[in-house]
Amino acid sequence: MSNAHYEPWKWEVPKTIIGERGHIPPDAHTKVVGTAEFTSDVVRPNMLYVKYYIAQRGAGRIKKLDTSKTEQVDGVVKVLRYDDKSIKWASDTLKPGNMTTFLNDRVYWAGHPVGFAVVAVSEYACDQAIKKAVIEWEDLPCEVDYNKALASKDLYREDINPQNNIMDKGEKVNNAIGDVEEGFKHCDHIIEFEYEIAENTPVSAEPMTCVCEFDNDDNCKIWFHGQAFNTIEEVVGEFVPQNKIDMHSAFNGGTFGGPISHQCEGWTAWLAIIAAYITRRPCKSVWEDCQFVGADECMGHHKWKVGYNNNGKIIAVDLDTVASGMMIGGEISKIKASTCIPNLRHTYVYPLYNRVVPGVFRDGAVAGTCQNMLFAHVAAALNMDPTEVALINDGGDGKTLAELEPKRVEEGFPAGRDSLKECLEKGKKAFNWSSKYHAAGARKLPDGRMHGVGFTWTESWQNWPYRRTRCGINVRYDGTVDVIYRRSCTGPLVALPYAQVVAAEMGMKLDDVIYQPDRHNVGFDTMSEASSSGVATNLGALVLAARKAKQNLLEYACKDAVTFMFGMEIPNPAPFTGLTPDKLDMKDSVIFEKSNPSHTATVKQVVQLHAGWNPIFQHEYSRFFTEAESDIPNYMDTALGRQCHFVEVAVDTNTGKVDILSACLVNDVGTAINPDVINGQQYGGFSMGMGRGNAQEVVYDPVTGAKLNDNMVFYPILGIGDVGPISCEIVETKTGYSPYGAVGLGECGCAATMGLTAAAVYNAIGKWVDIPTTPNNVLKALGKA
Amino acid sequence: MKTLEIFEHINAKSFEDAVAALQKGNAEVVAGGTDLIGTRRFNVLPSNPATLINLKTIPNADYIKEEGGFLKIGALAKLEDIAENDIVKKKYAALAEAAHKTASPHLREMGTIGGNICQLNRCWFFRKDDNYYDCLRKGNTKTCFALTSDNRYHSIFGMEKMCAAVNPSDTAPALVALDASIVTTKRTIKAEEFWAVAIPGSTVLDSDEIVKEIQIPTPASGSKSAFKKLAIRESIDFPIVNCAVLITSSGARICMNAVHNKPRRATDAEALISGKTITEELATQAGEKAVEKAVAMSNNKWKIAATAGIVKETILAAANA
After folding, report:
1. What is the residue range of A752's domain?
2. Which chain A residues touch B129 with a CB distance below 8 Å?
3. Is A267 helix (H, G, I), strand (E, B) or coil?
4. Domain final residue, candidates A629, A650, A674
């Protein structure tokens, strides 16, 4: 239930610390010098290793599994076989990622963990043992082409659908608006176009891993790599009571969205849990170098019919997709959320074939790309500046900005702010758009390559405050503060901005506040703090807890203390005795009287006054622990904040190579908590987006269903050195539904930019290219292949 | 992370030492290890020799010097040292650029010129971990899996011994274009004749033969050379196709790589441009000439166009150097 009284965007932004640059993250030193502990660094005494057998083939059934030699390998402790009835498996419903076929005898995709896993004293022993297994396979029909799968009578995922190769099909009703057919009757032009997006896959810097141990009293410790803490607790809860679980999270590196969180990390943790429970020794589950176990959301064929007017106003959009997986929100969700297009329809087919069915997706790359392609095509058809086409269609839920304005003002947002317009003004200037934009195919560089620019825009990933979250704040005996929260480090740097918020709200020195990196045993049900929209989801709890903590301190600062010692009462007057908390304030960890700022006391003095004269005997500083829960605002389902991005490319028409010359990224973050961290997300997100858009494609062997490039050599992840200079711009319109009007930035830079190079390549050569814009696709578009 | 099989490790004190150890059998040499260690770790081959003979402990085998009308490069010279050597950059620009374009800075600081020219072929069937595709280059089947699967990066000049894999070396075409010779512990081999389709190797080396030195004749005054590479990534990648070109007053040498099992000279294109003023039109014609005999597999017609393009661009780069 939402709360009409919970309107955190109206909260006043503290005047210090928030928005400041130059603060050093508390984990910076250990990360830079390489001593930061990642999950794969965790080693426990007497620890075992556990590793899955991973199927390379895309389909098949184990007819016979001989692990006799596996069991004899030196160091092997246990072979976990799918057919071992003595093993206590978690119930199917708790097998992560809806994997009822998980660790079974049937292979459904290349990379599927099936058959068995090995528990051994070393990873080396696991590897040696896995090699010794002898598997007799029953070959089954295998298909990695969705078109062929849809036309085939063979069944490729009979576990999901025993009738045909369709997981789901229909119309995305929740994203439909208006009457599309009627819309096509009332527009100046109609265009139709289609393109293909290749499958790409999440790959993280650190291989998936998890450590689990049970002691003799069934207390369980887990070092978890990922986001889905609650799911993992539920799995362990099948073995021990949940209040015996102690979850830890070391650094994870940059996992990113999609199946990482709900399949691979779940499978990884599950294996460590099972192995540890059986062997009663600490167990670390380990994968290979990177996570090529899941497909991403982007794979698919997109067929569009679009009606629009001469001025660029889009009237009707009909999108038909055949795509892999289950997209939360769907392909046109961003278009619906951020435009005034009055008629939208999306029909879809989710095929079943021998590629992994993604469990769940969150990063929105396909939706961002759809918006990019829609607007790029319309602008190109009209030979209009695409930024102008964007402005004329800006809005939400089919309504124009003007139509949305009264509701925005009524909700308490600043009047007259136009996020897209402000983003465009800043971005166009920084990118020098006016001199770089040109008609398609109109500019050749001195070296003979064709010059092109791409532009995209969409909503900010802002509206995620739909989960209550909770955090605690502990003021220590020495007056320092730690923020207690569940952490899952998936990459974004949040320790610093979260500490900034608490310090600013309380009036503490930033150095006195630590966002505790590895405390999970707090029982708080939270969303992972370092993910898609951590700010939007978690900031409310942080601010409320900080305010409670401050109020608590001010009250104690006015309250006289009495210390009991050896039966005696020793009175200790408060530094502000006789005053009330409203007469006080805090700054730089010092409490002061507002009307007499020279009248001060440190936080440390107040805490120690009430915690007792000797902490060895009296630990009453727990009275300085406060906690708070965020609420759920009553908010519109339309986005107000915007992001827009520009890229400049050179296309070599001889070789098909697309080089990214420069880029400008503009994000309206509502309110910038830490601009340095925002820039970091922009840089990283963009290089990931360019990787998806300009390089990455998972390639399968159509015969065996095996993945041919499931390694870092053949699968080209782009780095920052591949994307040219980037200009990062920040806009702050305070139009988010989170505290201070902030919005999350975690993944949107990557998700929004995947289609950018396709738009830019069109601008360069006047041809539309499938995604990614690799040399083979570019040369095909040029008719050279 | 996959773990390496345990192996015996011997530090050679000289090439003679290393050869003697090789002759005992069940052994292979390692220099920078940037290819070999990955090959072992991912179980690319059905089995690996039990002993690794470390060449890095051989003293004075990483020199780069001009001597007797040749540039002489010790087999253990690091790629980064070659890329940054002033003499190489000035007189043998194609090689300097090829070394510079190889892999990434870290790998160039480890990888050697000897290793770079001896690396195994780069084919995603051959390289698939756990020896999943037991292909003919491993000596166990007669099948090239590329024939019936995705072959977008495979040979465009047909198959040799029924293999469609390509040689991925960046320095190899530069050495061929510069008319280098490879000095081994047994003989001196013209670079052009150095590569072969072996099981599983990619050179004509005997099992007890080791590369000691590269010799490149000093180009005639006025000669120019260049190297170009097409790859997905700038920061690190093997070539989709690469090309090195040497233009002298009397002729030209053009060598492409990653287009066939072995580096391939474009002799028809050389003849077309030899002695002529290089224009864009002539370079375009030469690029087309270079792929005149190319034959597309099912997925790599685009690569023929890309090869023509890279040859054209390399010729122009050499002419304008």
Report:
1. 300-464+635-781
2. 56, 288, 711
3. helix
4. A629
